[in-house]
Amino acid sequence: MLNIGSHLSSSKGFEHMGKEALSIGANTFQFFTRNPRGSKAKAIDEDDIHRFLKFAKENQFTTILAHAPYTLNPCSAKESTREFAQITMEDDMKRMEYIPGNLYNFHPGSHVKQGSQIGIEMIAETLNKILKPEQTTTVLLETMSGKGTEVGRNFEELAAILERVELSHHMGVCLDTCHIYDAGYDIVNDLDGVLEEFDSLIGLDKLKAIHLNDTKNPFKSHKDRHEKIGEGYLGLDALVKVINHPALKNLPFFLETPNELDGYAKEIQLLKEHVQ
Ligand code: FE
Ligand code: FE
Ligand code: ZN
Fold first, then answer.
1. What angle do CA 120, 126, 127 make, to 5 degrees?
2. Burial 18-29 (b: 16+ CB within 10 A, else e)
3. Tens of pLDDT along 121-177?
């Protein structure tokens, strides 16, 4: 059984996302915790959340994935920017507890001109401030394509962040197929080799979610432009191997391809037809 969903707009609440997900053949979804550009989150609607939790249970939904605004930068050279990231993530952590036991993904950040070592330290420092022993949410570092000065462009950098986090049992990784191919991990020709490398540096037990995207750019381009499933440089065969790989097939898969709902429905259908 394939656990799959797509990115959905959270503007109409959780119950709406649940119903939308079901309507496109999904049993999970990803959503932004607030405007992707940062700013304020909507007030928590507890009734909506209760209706969603009931709906998700009745329809055998699996874990859902929240995505932090991608403008947060916990390793900015500016202290006020780092503080903003921390405060926002802290607030997101509190909000996540209304939907206990789910996943929260964020882009580690951009070190700008400080170097990745400083970036790694600052990201870990932020995580050490926001993680609480009692939380039920697992926080995921996303694998990045390495554009600009992104931290998390290789498994070593992610491992270095994780090593510095005290409550590391609350941490995991979200692997983005577009990003890692852009970053120089050849999942088209050597998926097994890439996963072995992940396992030796981070541990496959830390892998909690997959962003399943094709890419508009060739191998190692460090660009981060997602393409529809099967229409990019990864191609359908490589992505089919990803969803069927024994180390990955039980994870939740999230489409972040350039689509509206009907396009996501078609991709989900297509991928389900290729489950072996
Ligand atoms: Fe992302
Ligand atoms: Fe992604
Ligand atoms: Zn991306």
1. 90
2. bebbbebbbbbb
3. 999 999 999 999 999 999 999 999 999 999 999 999 999 999 999 999 999 999 999
Q: Alpha carbon of 76 to those of 24, 67, 126, 153, 188: distances in Å?
A: 38, 19, 11, 16, 34
- Active-site positions read 37, 67, 70, 107, 142, 176, 179, 211, 224, 226, 256
Phi and psi at residue 122, to the nearest 5°: -70, -40
Cα–ligand 1 centroid distance for 173 (angstroms): 12
pLDDT at residue 38 in the model: 64
Token pair 């700013």 in the structure block, residue = 39
The residue to which tokens 């802290």 are assigned: 90
Q: Which regions in the chain score pLDDT beneath 70?
A: 38
What is the DSSP track for 255-276? E-SS--HHHHHHHHHHHHHT--
- 239 alpha carbon – ligand 2 mean position (Å): 15
